[in-house]
Each structure stands twice: as structure tokens, then as C-alpha cells.
Design brief:
- The chain is an alpha/beta fold.
- It has 4 domains: 221 residues, no CATH class; 676 residues, ABC transporter type 1, transmembrane domain (ABC transporter transmembrane region fold), CATH 1.20.1560.10; 262 residues, 3-Layer(aba) Sandwich (Rossmann fold); 151 residues, P-loop containing nucleotide triphosphate hydrolases (Rossmann fold, 3-Layer(aba) Sandwich).
- Helices cover 63% and strands 8% of the residues.
- The strands form 5 sheets. The protein has a 6-stranded mixed β-sheet with strand order 6-7-8-4-9-10, with helices on both faces.
- It is found in: Vacuole membrane.
């Protein structure tokens, strides 16, 4: 700053140091000699200054009037002219009586100030020609001009304050700044008046008294303007403000739902000072210090921060950017990353760009502070060496410099943290907008694009890539700020060292290619790491989704090997390499400033005749330290930027991914006329992918479906039945032809998709609740008895994917959803497959058939049953993607006697006479049925839906996520240290301490060298320079090497060890949890744990531990140096440390809980995302994409409400800590100046040492406190992992002492002895005293109505459910005595839900790699799937998509059957194994089981025909054995339950006819 005197005449030099005589030559000349303007405005002999040449340490009157009064007044008037019209056009807000009184007081103060300003203006004009001598400077032209401008500013302030009080949420920031400026400029002007005017003169009295009164009123006005304008004491307005009264009804509505909406954030009404120091956070911080914070304590988001608005802004700009790129002829793949950053800046860049202003201010102030310190040292030096009081000058100079030092530090603090707050807001906006955009895009992805991305990939985009943006945005400005700071540092070094400084620049330039290569390598590693992390997250997702199959088949070891191979053999080595590369970055960025300083000092010593003394060394060293910060930060930011670039590229690629073709179908508005075309195919060919190697799934379709028709779609497995429905939905790619759809569509997906909500929410599905219609749907879908069993009825939460319901219940809930929608066209994919025969008959009678509630609707349903075909209006059959010509009514199709005729004839259960009777009955029913009246409930409005979402999250019955409270327990730290290695942790700390010792030693060498150079003759001795340069080089090199040793220990040893132990331990624990735990724990919660929390343990926690350790060791080193130099400083350290600890404890109480709440509130986001990806077809078919997006955005907003205070509380802490440090510096420097001016003993060197060390101590303590708090915040991830790793597990996996022989079970005898069980503690028994015995090789059929306990029997046999009482014996062995692995691997099961995972067909059939290709192929042949291998070039290595989505539902079930057959167990369980298979294939499978399988089979089936040839049938009723006998014997007893079930299925009629 002192050098500015050389550039701007009269500025700086006289202020900081002694005043050269020539500087003020122009000022001392007569005023009219300068310029005409100067003589007109400034007729003072002192001129424009800024410093007075005649008076000690004061600004000239002209400079004061122009800079301190006129320019601020002019700026205020401009701001008022711009903002006042806006506020006057805004709506006036209601104000309370107290608020109106406050306004009147403001008006009074502003009016009084304006009056006094006018008085001063008039006085100056009146006295202008009557005042002579030095006092005439007070009435010059610029003084009158300033007084007039200030009067206008006061008038403007009056109107601006009033307008904003009535229309804004807080007082005027401009007015606050104006009144605050008076507090600084007023005393300066007062001192000048007292110096220039004679005591008791008229001008003194007429200017001093109004000025003092004005300052007093300005102080009151400042206090009033800082008050809250929204004082709540009831609305009581003056008579002339009736238009501001609030509608009482609106107030009442708000009062009725006090808990529905969170409280408004105080930042909305906070004044300028409150926002600058974050005082608006104080209520939350105080609350957190009194009790543990909860989610209910969180404030609403500030206005404009809602996710919907942010996502809209991002998507609008992204689409515009894509169009612009295409118009320019540039492919999207080349411009994706650049467009991503442009979109981000355009959508969320406003706070980010404003933050740059604060960053520039902070950078400039950072270099001003050392200059002020130099000036203060010069002041002390002058007082030490000067002979008399005149030479010393006024003591006020020292106190002003101290005040400016404090003011600079405070402004720097506020600038820095306003910058941080703004970039945090920008990052928060970017995260919310992009997370929502990812969700929206996921709903629009084409099938091809979706198949290319596993669910884990999409989850990683949301959990990792989107979360990197706030971290990068927080520090992005460092990229240019570091260059700016480096430039300032080198300019200052050049002024200090001359041309020698350019040697340092050359060294920096030479280092750039090396660092660029290292950065490129790091970027490649980051890209690989993200791919591997996607792979691991995707595999983890599949393990969670398929956990039932994994447990039933005892495949835990196989999947553990797969996951740990990815984790330990691919991901962790990358983590190690990234850590080593980062340590290399640390070395170079630490070494570069050292080599710069070394090269500069060597060059200076060799080329300069001037010795390298302390006044050169230590200023240069301080500049190198300032240089060190931007360089070290630049290293981390470049590394972070490269990682974020990878994320930006991934996100851009995702946003550019192919979407569903909106032209795949033509949608016509309205309802078709009676007998009009509802769906029409004309020569339409469809495929799932545009890939040329993909065969079209549907070819040359010509089909018309008319309004009100009931169309049955027949075909074998894989013939394209589900594909045809998808084509109507618009989910496929149309290659040629066209399809027209008219009317709203409802869709039932195969198996029935449900979301993790209540039964009611699943049925309403985003529509308003209509009691009568809702009950009608429940009754029609036979859900009444099921809801009666559930604990909370239809308000019972059914778990993710409806896991707590049986397959039949899930299907009926999904069907009820379709009924409730009141659509025009119903697309039903095998709705009767998952239900019992009697339930199917009920659904047909009341929902689907000619007398059902949908009788007047267009219904297209795929069927694997023929008994209902006579009642269909049209039968359509698919064969390998093409329509057979045999179409029409049942009679027409049968008359054609083609393929369809043969299939139906072979599978029909009735004779012609019986069928004729049914046809007549159906025809009569169709004619007799009255027109149905199915209402269409309105869709919920956006606000209603978001409110319902938040209500559901608050009132959810699902188990709450584990969340600790209070301080993180010491055992968590112990476990973390133990997981890493206690020895390694010790070496890590030792490395940091040794590095700091080398750093101190390096500075000591310079100190000794400068002291040696100060001795006579030392400068001419080359050995002195060589000796100290060698020592300096050695210490510097050791410091640079030491800086990368600790990170190497951390990343190569400690991080890998802890990462492996925590991840592997967590996974192995989770894998051993009971199946019921997975059914009640949302997948998103687990994925959040394995993605976000594991990522924190891998990367974030080590980084903040490194920062905390480094800053703490620096504090320790500084304390040692200061204590050695100034022992008295210890007296200040103790209270300083105590104050810091108090602030930190106060802060941690809140920040810790806020971090936990933030972590917990993330899980519902991932859970909803996961569920939505599983039900994309259903969501799109019902037109609920916007509703699901709204619900998702409500969840993101809820998380943002927790994230915003969690981030802001860091600013609250930092401002207070740095202000505390600034106060310490103020006190210390003030005391030092007092000692100097009172004749005490205080040298400039001692003061400089004390202040410089105090400054560094405060900064280092600040970083230590913040790093320690970040460690505690992020150690919460370790705490969460440990809490999940310690939950109750299943019984022992293996028990060697009771392990059965290798060939067990040899016979396959199963015996249940009085067996009872329940799903969870506190629930009713699902099986009660079940007793039966199966003989070796016997085929047992199990049947019963829905909820009878059929599937529970399977779970009990595999010990998914443990016995409450009784036991199960297999070949004379009590299965409770075995390990779960020995038991489960000895049996095979074909589960109800076909579960496949990403990989190959071979991996899906044989994860343990136990069987040969021949054995696998034979199993596929048995399951009628040999063509899957024969028709594909990869054979058994044919890829399987995530969830097996590249196969039809029937094919997936057949693959699961092949999987069970290849195991060749003695016991085979079929749990609804053929529900999604056509009857022809079902019969073949049963034949295979009878012929190929010689062991004991237990078959659970809804279709009684499937178990009619069983040796014996077990009939269950309400969890008890109702009957157990041969089918023939049971059918001979008309009173038996089996007879009743068979009669409902039409099997009794068939048997009777056969007997006849």
C-alpha cells in the first residue's frame, strides 16, 4: 500500500511513512493555479490532499467533502432512484400497530436529519463570503455541494425507508450503510472543524452543533432501521391503511395447520448486519445448545430456493444449449461438458458471480493488512528514534493504524464468509436442480438408454456426481483468485527484490508441464474410479433387490466374492493411486514456493551488491507465505476440478441420452365415440432398441380395438404379449407404420407394481380421495378381508415394492389402482396370474368381465387361462411378434380351427355342452349388465401432493433410520483408529510434527543468515552466503519431502485399511441380516449408506483429518516459537484457547445434529428414486410422471431445509472465531501503542514479531477448529456404518459340529411337528401347529386361499422364518440344529418372484460355478429355453440386463426354473413358479418335474390344475393344516375345502364329466 504513493501523487506515502517535501508542491500553490474546476470547488490552500500538508495526520477538507460525503450521497441517491420505483409498485404488506409506531419513529428521525442537513446547507451558503483564513476551507464550493447532496440523500432516505418498511421484509440496506458511514466520517469532519475554526466562532458553533445533533439522530436512525419491520402483536392499523387489512379467513386457515408448514427462515427478515455476521442463525444455535435438534426445528427454505424452480431453470437452459449446439452443426457428445458448465452458470450463477466481488475484496484486503502492519512498525520505529515530539507526530496516527488494522481484519472476515455463503447457496442450488433434473430425465429415458445404465449408475449420478458440484463451487473462484494473489505477490516481490523475483516466475513456469501431466493422470484415475464405483453400487443394488434368492439358494459367498473383488481388487487400488498422486501434488505445491524463494535468494545474493538483511528477508518471506496459500489451494482445487470435470462429462452424457420417442404413438384427445376406435395399429413394427442387431419385437401389426371391447391377448412365453401393451403405452421404438390411441390409459404391469407407501396411497396414486368410489374398488378387487387382517387397515405401509404383501395381494392393490383411475383404456398384463382361482373368478365377475365395474371400458388383457375366453369380445394371438390371422370372438376363432383352436382345445377344462352353457350365460350377462358408472377422481394439485408427501414422511410407520444424538462417542474414534492401525496413526502424527520442525528450522536459518549479514564485512564473504544457502536448501527440501510423507502414510496405509474394514464389515453384516429386515428397510437407505457414507470414509474423512492434523501441528509450532520469543504471549493464549473452546462446543452441539439430520433426510430421496425406476412403465402409463417428480422434489426440499442450516452454521462459527482473533489483535496492538507513546519499552522488531505471530496463531487456530468440527461432522458416517453393522443377525451360517453328510438329504423326507412361526415379534402367528410328513420322492401340492400361509411354509422350511414353537425335520435331522448354509444349499426353490441380476446367463444359472456347460444347457432344455443359447452368438455368456429386463416375465420365470433344476437337489420347492407362464408351457414344466426330478417336490400354486396330479395335497387355512390327503380323496368329499376351491376353478365339472 505504501508503494501507491509512487503511483498516485499525495496518496499513501504521507499516510504510512514520512512525507517527502515534493509530494505536496502543487497543493501548497494558490488554488487558482491548479485548474478552473479546482478553484471553483476547492478554494482551500490544502488542496485535494488526501492528507493535509499543514496539519498533523488529518485529511484535507476538500477530500473529506468529496470522498466521504458527496460521493456516498450521490451513490445513495442513484440507488434510491433505481430501487424506489420497484418498491412503490410492489404490494403493500400488513403491518402491526407496533410496526407502524416504528415507522413513525423512523420518519421522525429521517425528517430531523434532513432538516439539520438543510440547515447546514443554508449556513454554508450564508457564511461563504464572511469567513476568511483557514476556516474558509469549511465553506468552499465542494463543501456546499456535499451539503446539498447530503440533504437530497436524507430526503431520499425518508422515502426509501418508508416504502421498504411497508413493502419489504426487512429494513433498507442502503439506509443502514448511509447511517453507518456517518458513524465513521462524522468524527473525522468534527476534528477538522475544531482544528480549522477558531474556538467560539460563528462558523464553529453553526457547523459543530448541527453536525453533532445529526450524528446522534443518525445513530438512532441506524438502530431503528436494524429493527424487524414485521413485529407480531396482532394486526392493528391506522385509519388510513384499511387496504392493508388481511382477510380473516386466510389467517384462520394458517392457524388451523400450525404444524403443516415449517417456520419461515429468519434470513428472510434479517437486516444487513445480521446477514453479515449470520446472527439470524442464533435462535437455532441457541436451541441446539439447550437440546438435541430434530427435523421439526428446521426452517423453510428461503424464497426462490425450491427445487422445482431450480430444476426448471436448469432444464430450460440445457435444452436451449442443446438446440444451439445442433444448429451450429456440432455433435452433442463433443459439446456436452462445455454446455453443462454454461447451463450451470446461467441457471444458478447469480450468487456465484456476486461472490466474486467479495472474493476480490478479501484478496485485496489480505495484502493490505501486511502493509498496515509495516506502517505501524514504522510509526513505532519513528517514536524510538525521533528526538522530539514534533518529529514523532501525533500519537493518534498509531491508534488510527491500529483501528484500520482491526477494521481491515473485520472487513476481510465478512467478505470471506459472505463469499463462502454465496458460493454455498450456488452449490446448494446446483445440487438440488441437477438432482431433480436427473430424476426427471430418468422418467423420460428410452428403453435403450435405460438398459445401458444400471440402477447403481443412476444412483451414483445422484449421490456422488451431483454432490461433487457444491464442493467444487465452494472453491471454484480459487482458480482465478490464486492467479490474482500470485500476481500481487510477485509485483510486491519485484518492488522488494528487483529482477531477482523473475527467477521465481521462471521456476513456476517450468513446473507447469510437470503438474499438468500429474493433473492429467489424476483425472484419468478419477474417471476410472467413478466407473468402478458405479459398478460396485450397481452390484450392491442388485444384491439388495435379489436378497431373497441369494438367501434361499445360499449364494452369499458367491456374491460376496463378486462384490469384494470389485471393491478390493479394483476400487481400493485406484483409491491408493489417487492418494499417492494427491501426495505428489502436495510435494510439488509445497516445493514450488520454496524453490521460488531459494532461486530468488541465490540470484539476489549473486547479483546484488546490497546484503540480504532482515528488512528484505522477512517481508519477502511473508510474501512467499502468502504465495504458498494460493499455490497449495490451487493444487487441491485443480485436483477437485479435474474430478468434477469427470462428473460433468458423465452428467452431460446422461442428460443427452436418448429419450422415449414422443412420436412412437399418436395420442388423440377425448373419448372415442361409441364403437369408435380406441387403439388402432396400421402396419406397425416396433423394437426395443434402434441397435441394428436387435430383431423387431413386433412386426407388421394390423389391429383395431374399439371402445368398450374386452380383448384377450394370447401367446406363448416371449411371443410379445407384454411388448404389444408397451407399444400402446409408447415405451417402444416405432420403426414403421403407425398406432393411434384415444383416451386416458391405465396399466397393470405383470405381477403388479407397488410403491413403498400405504395401501391407500398405492390405490389413489396421486388422485383425490373419493370415499364411495374407493370402497367400490376395494370390494371389486376383493381387498376387504385382506385389509381387515392388516394392523392399520388401508393405512398400513406395505414396504418397498410391496414386500409385506403376498403376490396376490400386491396384484389386487395394483388392479384397484387401475380401477380407481377411471381411465378409458385398460392395459392389463396377466392380472389373474398371481391370484387364486376363486379370487380370479371374483375379479373377473366384479372388475374385468361383462358384469364388472370396467364393463364399459376398453380392456386389453394378456391371459394364460382359457376359461374366460368365451366372455371376451375379441381374441388376438401373437406368434413370435406377429399377429396370427385367427382373430375375432371365441366362436369365430374356434370355427377357424387353427393354432389357437388346437391350444384352447387341449387346455379347456369343460366339454362342449358345458362350454355352450357358459357361453349362453356370458351372453345373457353381457346383455343384462347395466352401464357402469366409474368416476374419474381429480388429480391432486401440486401443493396438495407436496403436502401429502411431507405428511407421509412425518407420519410413516416404517422403521426410522438409525440416528445417534449428542457428541460422537469416543469408541467411534477408537474403532476408526483401530481399523486403520494404531502404529500407522502414530507415524502419521510424527511425520506431521517432524515436517513442522523442518519448517521452523528453515525460517530460523533465514533469521540467522540475515543477522550474520548485518555484521560488518559479512556481505563480502562468499562462504557465509554459501553456508546459509546450503542449510536453507536442505531444510526446505526436507520440509517439501515431509509434506508428502504424512499423506502417503494416510492414503497408502491407513485409508486403505479402514476403507476395506468398514466396507467389508458392513457388507458382511448386512448380508447376514434376516430377510424381514430388508423388507422393512428402504433400498435407498442402504444405497445411501454404501455410496455416500462409504465415499465419505474413503475420501472426505481422510482429507479433513489431514487438514485438522496439519493445522493443529502448525498451531503447536507457532506456540513454541512465540513462547520462546515472547513468553508473555502465553498469558493471552490461555484465555484465547478457552474462548475458542467455548465457541466450538456451542457450535458443535448444533452442527453435529444438523449433519446427522442432513444425512438421514437424504435416504428418502434415494428410496423414492429407486422405487420410481422400478415402476417407470406404470408411472408413465398413468400420466403420473409430474406427480412423482413433485413428490421427489418435496423430498429434496426437505433435505435442503436440513442442509442449508448445516452449511450456514459453519459460517456462523468462522465469523465469530475470526472476529475473536481480530479483537485479540486490536487489544494487543492498542496496548503496544499505549506503551510506545507513554515512553515504555517496545521495539519495532518485538512488536512485529508479536503481531505477526498473533495473526498466524489466530488463523491456524481458526483452521484447526474448523477442521476439528469437520472431522466430527464427517465421523458421523463411521458412526452410521458401525450402527448398521451391529444389528441382530440370522442364526449361525455354518455350524461345523452339526454339519450333515455331503449327500444329505439322501431321501428327502420332510416332517413338520407342531410348527408355529410369525414374521416379526409382536405380530400374529402366520403358521399355527402345522404337522405333516412327506415321504421320500413324494410330490406334495400346497393350496389355500390368499393369506392362508402357503408362502410362509416355504420360508419356514428354509428358515427365513425361525420357529416360534415346534420343529421341522428333514431325513431325521432337526433343521434348527444346522447352519443356514448347510440347510439351504441342500434344497432348491423356484420362488414366486423371478429374480435375475446383471451379468451373463451362466452367472444367473450357476453363480457358484459348480456345473459344466453341458449340465447348464440340459437344464435350459428342460425349461424349454434352449433357444436362448442357440439363437445367440454368445451362448451361455449371453448378457442379462439388470433385473433381467431384456427377457419377458415368462422367460425370467423359466430361467429361475432352470436354475433350480440344475441344482439336482432331493427337495424341490415351487412357490407359484409358473404363474407368469402360459398354460401350455406350465403343463410341460409340470411334466418335466414329474419325469426329470426324482426327489421330493413341494408345489405351491394358485392354479389347482398345476397340483391335481400331486401324490397328496396340503390345504392350509388361516395358517393351520385344514386337509392333507390325495386329490382324489379330497374331491370325493364335497364338504372339503379343496372341493370348494376346485369347484370355483371349474375342475369339479371337468372331473365329473370325465367320470360320466
Amino acid at each position: 500500500m505504501a508503494d501507491l504513493g509512487a503511483w498516485v501523487p499525495g496518496f499513501g506515502t504521507s499516510f504510512w511513512f514520512e512525507t517527502p517535501a515534493h509530494v505536496y508542491d502543487a497543493v501548497l500553490k494558490p488554488a487558482d493555479a491548479s485548474s478552473p474546476v479546482g478553484s471553483l470547488l476547492c478554494d482551500s490552500a490544502e488542496g485535494w490532499g488526501p492528507m493535509s500538508p499543514t496539519r498533523d495526520f488529518d485529511l484535507t477538507p476538500c477530500f473529506q467533502a468529496l470522498v466521504l460525503w458527496f460521493l456516498p450521497a450521490l451513490a445513495f441517491c442513484v440507488v434510491t432512484l433505481v430501487s424506489l420505483p420497484f418498491w412503490l409498485s410492489s404490494e403493500r404488506k400488513p403491518r402491526s400497530e407496533s410496526s407502524m409506531h416504528l415507522l413513525y419513529e423512523k420518519d421522525g428521525m429521517a425528517g430531523a436529519i434532513a432538516g439539520l442537513g438543510f440547515v447546514e446547507f443554508v449556513v454554508l451558503i450564508g457564511l461563504r463570503s464572511h469567513v476568511h483564513g483557514g476556516a474558509s476551507a469549511l465553506t468552499g464550493g465542494v463543501q456546499v455541494l456535499a451539503a446539498g447532496a447530503m440533504f437530497l440523500a436524507y430526503v431520499a432516505a425518508f422515502f426509501l425507508q418508508r416504502a421498504m418498511h411497508m413493502r419489504a421484509r426487512h429494513g433498507s440496506d442502503a439506509a443502514i450503510l448511509l447511517w453507518s458511514l456517518h458513524m465513521f466520517t462524522g468524527p473525522i469532519r468534527l476534528r477538522t472543524i475544531l482544528q480549522l475554526a477558531e474556538p467560539g466562532s460563528a462558523i464553529q458553533l453553526l457547523t459543530v452543533i448541527p453536525l453533532c445533533m445529526r450524528l446522534l439522530f443518525a445513530l438512532f436512525a441506524l438502530c431503528l432501521e436494524c429493527c424487524d419491520v414485521e413485529i407480531e402483536d396482532g394486526i392493528a392499523l391506522p385509519d388510513d391503511d384499511e387496504d392493508l387489512l388481511v382477510d380473516e379467513g386466510a389467517v384462520d386457515i394458517t392457524a388451523q395447520e400450525p404444524d403443516e408448514q415449517p417456520q419461515e427462515s429468519p434470513v428472510e427478515t434479517a437486516n444487513l448486519f445480521s446477514r453479515l455476521v449470520f446472527h439470524w442463525m442464533q435462535p437455532l444455535m441457541s436451541l441446539g445448545a439447550k437440546r438435541y435438534l430434530t427435523e421439526a426445528d428446521m426452517w423453510a427454505l428461503p424464497h426462490g430456493e425450491d427445487t422445482e424452480r431450480l430444476s426448471d431453470a436448469f432444464q430450460t437452459r440445457w435444452i436451449a444449449g442443446a438446440h444451439a449446439s445442433l444448429e451450429q452443426g456440432r455433435p452433442l457428445s463433443e459439446t456436452g461438458r462445455a454446455r453443462f458448465w454454461h447451463t450451470l452458470l446461467g441457471a444458478f450463477g447469480r450468487p456465484f458471480l456476486i461472490a466474486a466481488i467479495f472474493k476480490v475484496a478479501q484478496d485485496v484486503l489480505a495484502f493490505v493488512q501486511p502493509q498496515l502492519l509495516r506502517a505501524l512498525l514504522a510509526f513505532v520505529g519513528r517514536w524510538e528514534t525521533a528526538d522530539g515530539p514534533e518529529a514523532r507526530g501525533t500519537p493518534l496516527r498509531g491508534f488510527v493504524l491500529v483501528g484500520l488494522l482491526f477494521l481491515t481484519a473485520m472487513l476481510q472476515t465478512m467478505s470471506l464468509h459472505q463469499y463462502f455463503q454465496l458460493v454455498s447457496m450456488a452449490g446448494m442450488r446446483a445440487r438440488a436442480g441437477i438432482v431433480s433434473a436427473i430424476f426427471r430425465k430418468s422418467l423420460r429415458l428410452s428403453n435403450q438408454a435405460r438398459s445401458e445404465r444400471r440402477t447403481g449408475d443412476l444412483v451414483n449420478l445422484m449421490s456422488v456426481d451431483a454432490n461433487r458440484l457444491p464442493d467444487f463451487v465452494m472453491y471454484a473462484h480459487i482458480l482465478w483468485s490464486a492467479v490474482f494473489q500470485i500476481t500481487i505477490a510477485f509485483v510486491s516481490l519485484y518492488n522488494l527484490l528487483g529482477w531477482s523475483a523473475f527467477v521465481g516466475i521462471a521456476i513456476m513456469v517450468v513446473s507447469v508441464p510437470l503438474n499438468t501431466a500429474l493433473a492429467h493422470y489424476l483425472r484419468q484415475l478419477s474417471a476410472q474410479q467413478m466407473k468402478v464405483r458405479d459398478k460396485r453400487t450397481g452390484l450392491m443394488n442388485e444384491i439388495v433387490l435379489n436378497i431373497k434368492s441369494i438367501k434361499l439358494f445360499a449364494w452369499e459367498e458367491a456374491f460376496t466374492r463378486r462384490l469384494l473383488k470389485v471393491r478390493n481388487d479394483e476400487e481400493l487400488p485406484l483409491l491408493r493411486n489417487i492418494g499417492m498422486a494427491s501426495a505428489g501434488f502436495n510435494f510439488f505445491w509445497q516445493a514450488i514456493p520454496f524453490f521460488v524463494s531459494l532461486g530468488t535468494f541465490v540470484t539476489f545474493s549473486a547479483t546484488s551488491t546490497q546484503p540480504l538483511t532482515a528488512d528484505i528477508v522477512f517481508p519477502a518471506l511473508s510474501l512467499y507465505q502468502l504465495l504458498n496459500f494460493p499455490l497449495s489451494m490451487l493444487a487441491g482445487i485443480v485436483s477437485m476440478f479435474l474430478q468434477t470435470q469427470v462428473s460433468a462429462e458423465r452428467l452431460a452424457s446422461f442428460f443427452d441420452a436418448e429419450e422415449l420417442d414422443g412420436r412412437a404413438r399418436r395420442l388423440k384427445a377425448g373419448v372415442p365415440p361409441p364403437n369408435g376406435e380406441a387403439v388402432r395399429f396400421r402396419g406397425a413394427t416396433f423394437t426395443w432398441s434402434l441397435d441394428e442387431s436387435t430383431t423387431p419385437a413386433l412386426r407388421d401389426l394390423d389391429l383395431t380395438i374399439r371402445r368398450g371391447e374386452l380383448v384377450a391377448l394370447l401367446g406363448r412365453v416371449g411371443d410379445g404379449k407384454s411388448s404389444l401393451l408397451s407399444a400402446v403405452l409408447g415405451d417402444m421404438v416405432r420403426l414403421r407404420g403407425r398406432i393411434t390411441v384415444q383416451g386416458e390409459v391405465a396399466y397393470f404391469s405383470q405381477g403388479g407394481w407397488c410403491m413403498g407407501a400405504t395401501v391407500r396411497d398405492n390405490i389413489l396414486f396421486g388422485r383425490a380421495y373419493d370415499e364411495a368410489h374407493y370402497q367400490q374398488c376395494l370390494e371389486a378387487c376383493a381387498l376387504g378381508p385382506d385389509l381387515a387382517i392388516l394392523e392399520h387397515g388401508d393405512l398400513t405401509e406395505i414396504g418397498e415394492r410391496g414386500v409385506s404383501l403376498s403376490g396376490g395381494q400386491r396384484a389386487r392393490v395394483a388392479l384397484a389402482r387401475a380401477c380407481y383411475a377411471g381411465a378409458d383404456i385398460y392395459l392389463l398384463d396377466d392380472p389373474l396370474a398371481a391370484v387364486d382361482a376363486h379370487v380370479g373368478a371374483h375379479l373377473w365377475e366384479h372388475v374385468l368381465g361383462p358384469r364388472g365395474m370396467l364393463r364399459d371400458k376398453t380392456r386389453v388383457l394378456t391371459l394364460n387361462a382359457v376359461s374366460y375366453l368365451p366372455q371376451c369380445d375379441k381374441i388376438v394371438t401373437l406368434r413370435q411378434g406377429t399377429l396370427l390371422p385367427e382373430q375375432g370372438t371365441f366362436e369365430e376363432v374356434m370355427a377357424m380351427k387353427g393354432d389357437v383352436y388346437r391350444i384352447i382345445s387341449s387346455l379347456r377344462s369343460d366339454e362342449d355342452e358345458v362350454q355352450a352353457h357358459k357361453q349362453q350365460e356370458a351372453q345373457a350377462a353381457h346383455e343384462a349388465a347395466a352401464p357402469s358408472d366409474v368416476p374419474r377422481p381429480r388429480a391432486l394439485a401440486k401443493a396438495e401432493l407436496k403436502r401429502e408427501t411431507l405428511r407421509h414422511l412425518r407420519e410413516s410407520q416404517a422403521p426410522k433410520e438409525l440416528q445417534e444424538t449428542g457428541s460422537v462417542q469416543w469408541r467411534v474414534y477408537q474403532r476408526y483408529i483401530h481399523s486403520a492401525s494404531a502404529l500407522g496413526v502414530v507415524l502419521f502424527f510424527v511425520a506431521h510434527i517432524v515436517t513442522q520442525a523442518f519448517t521452523v528450522a528453515r525460517d530460523v536459518v533465514l533469521k540467522q543468515w540475515s543477522a550474520a549479514n548485518a555484521e560488518p564485512g559479512a556481505a563480502e564473504n562468499p562462504h557465509v552466503a554459501r553456508h546459509y544457502l546450503t542449510l536453507y536448501a536442505a531444510m526446505g527440501l526436507l520440509t517439501s519431502v515431509g509434506v508428502c510423507v504424512a499423506p502417503m502414510i494416510l492414503y497408502v496405509w491407513l485409508v486403505l485399511s479402514s476403507a476395506r474394514r468398514f466396507h467389508d464389515g458392513l457388507f458382511l453384516s448386512v448380508l447376514r441380516y434376516p430377510l424381514q429386515w430388508f423388507e422393512t428397510t428402504p433400498t435407498g437407505r442402504l444405497l445411501n449408506l454404501f455410496s455416500r457414507d462409504i465415499s465419505v470414509i474413503d475420501e472426505v474423512l481422510p482429507r479433513v483429518i489431514q487438514g485438522m492434523t496439519r493445522s493443529s501441528v502448525v498451531v503447536l509450532g507457532v506456540l513454541c516459537v512465540v513462547t520462546y520469543s515472547v513468553p508473555a504471549f502465553l498469558l493471552a493464549v490461555v484465555p484465547l484457547a478457552m474462548a475458542y473452546r467455548a465457541v466450538m462446543r456451542y457450535y458443535l452441539a448444533s452442527s453435529r445434529e444438523l449433519k446427522r439430520i442432513d444425512a438421514v433426510s437424504k435416504s428418502p430421496i434415494f428410496t423414492w428414486f429407486q422405487e420410481s425406476l422400478g415402476g417407470l412403465s406404470t408411472i408413465r402409463a398413468f400420466g403420473q410422471a409430474h406427480a412423482f417428480t413433485d413428490a421427489f422434489e418435496a423430498r429434496v426440499d426437505r433435505n435442503q431445509m436440513c442442509y442449508f442450516p448445516a452449511v450456514t452454521c459453519n459460517r456462523w462459527l468462522a465469523v465469530r472465531i475470526e472476529c475473536l482473533g481480530s479483537v485479540v489483535i486490536l487489544l494487543a496492538s492498542t496496548l503496544a501503542v499505549i506503551i510506545v507513546v507513554t515512553g515504555g519499552r517496545m521495539s519495532a522488531g518485538l512488536l512485529g514479531l508479536m503481531l505477526s505471530q498473533a495473526l498466524s496463531t489466530t488463523q491456524s487456530l481458526n483452521w484447526a477448529v474448523r477442521s476439528a468440527s469437520e472431522v466430527e461432522q464427517n465421523i458421523v458416517s463411521v458412526e452410521r456404518v458401525l450402527s448398521y453393522a451391529g444389528l441382530p443377525q440370522e442364526r449361525p451360517y455354518t455350524i461345523e459340529s452339526t454339519a450333515p453328510p455331503a449327500d444329505w438329504p439322501a431321501r428327502g423326507e420332510v416332517e413338520f411337528r407342531d410348527y408355529s412361526t410369525r414374521y416379526r415379534e409382536g405380530l400374529d402367528l402366520v403358521l399355527r401347529n402345522v404337522s405333516f410328513t412327506s415321504r421320500a420322492g413324494e410330490r406334495i401340492g400346497v393350496c389355500g386361499r390368499t393369506g392362508a400361509g402357503k408362502s410362509s411354509l416355504t420360508l419356514a422350511l428354509f428358515r427365513i422364518l425361525e420357529a416360534e414353537s415346534g420343529s421341522i425335520w428333514i431325513d431325521g435331522v432337526n433343521i434348527a440344529s444346522l447352519g443356514l448354509h448347510e440347510l439351504r444349499q441342500a434344497m432348491a426353490i423356484i420362488p414366486q418372484d423371478p429374480q435375475l441380476w446383471h451379468g451373463t446367463l451362466r452367472q444367473n444359472l450357476d453363480p457358484l460355478v459348480h456345473y459344466s456347460d453341458t449340465e447348464l444347457y440340459r437344464a435350459l432344455e428342460q425349461a424349454r429355453l434352449a433357444h436362448l443359447v442357440d439363437d445367440h452368438e454368445d451362448g451361455l455368456e449371453r448378457p442379462v440386463a439388470e433385473g433381467g429386463t431384456n427377457f419377458s416375465a415368462g422367460q425370467r420365470q423359466l430361467i429361475c426354473i432352470a436354475r433350480a433344476l440344475v441344482r439336482q437337489s432331493r427337495i424341490l420347492v415351487l412357490d407359484e413358479a409358473t404363474s407368469s407362464i402360459d398354460l401350455e408351457t406350465d403343463a410341460l414344466i409340470q411334466q418335466i418335474v414329474r419325469q426329470e426330478f426324482t426327489g421330493t417336490s413341494i408345489t405351491i400354486a394358485h392354479r389347482l390344475a398345476t397340483i391335481m396330479d400331486s401324490d397328496r395335497v396340503l390345504v392350509l387355512s388361516q395358517g393351520e393344516v385344514a386337509e392333507f390327503d390325495t386329490p382324489a380323496n379330497l374331491l370325493d368329499r364335497p364338504s372339503s375345502l379343496f372341493y370348494a376351491l376346485a369347484k370355483e376353478s371349474g375342475l369339479v365339472d371337468r372331473r365329473n364329466s370325465q367320470l360320466l
